[in-house]
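Record passed on underneath.
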Amino acid sequence: MNLKSFKARAYRKRAALKKFLKAWQKASPAAADKTAVKLNKEVFAEIDCLACSNCCRTMTPTYTEADLKRISKHLGITRDEFYEKWLYKEKGTGDLMNTQTPCQFLDLKSNMCSIYEVRPADCAGFPHLNKKEIVDYTHVFAENLHRCPATLRWVEKMESIAKGEEWVPVKKKK
């Protein structure tokens, strides 16, 4: 995977795809969740995350308390030691985030996570392409178009399907 060409394509298509995502969210297509799961499988048959690791290089996950306990136990340190060594609390949101990027657990040569078995839930779910109520995550996809080749490919495929099929709008749950 060529990250340079991916980023160029992402920036070139970003405005149009963000516009699509916004319109798609408002339409709230009935088949979106089912289609999302299908496309997620297709995309990850095409994309090898270990050839990229751009998410770990350029972003930080949000850690939960459960993540802190699980990871610190795995590392043989206390929750507080883990927090003091690698995390900070984001002002405004209170989210627990890495103090640095790339992620301290990313092996830059192999693109592998050194704590993969116990990684944060946010990492395990990334890029969140198979969530229920998928249209509620369009803002996340719009932000990740230039960071994640899988997200870009998924949105491109979703847009193609939306253009070729008639979506049946449903009322969004409040």
User: Anything to note?
Assistant: Helices lie at 3-27, 32-46, 54-58, 65-75, 79-86, 121-125, 138-144, 149-164. The chain has eight helices and four strands. Residues 3-51+127-164 form one domain. The first helix runs from residue 3 to 27.
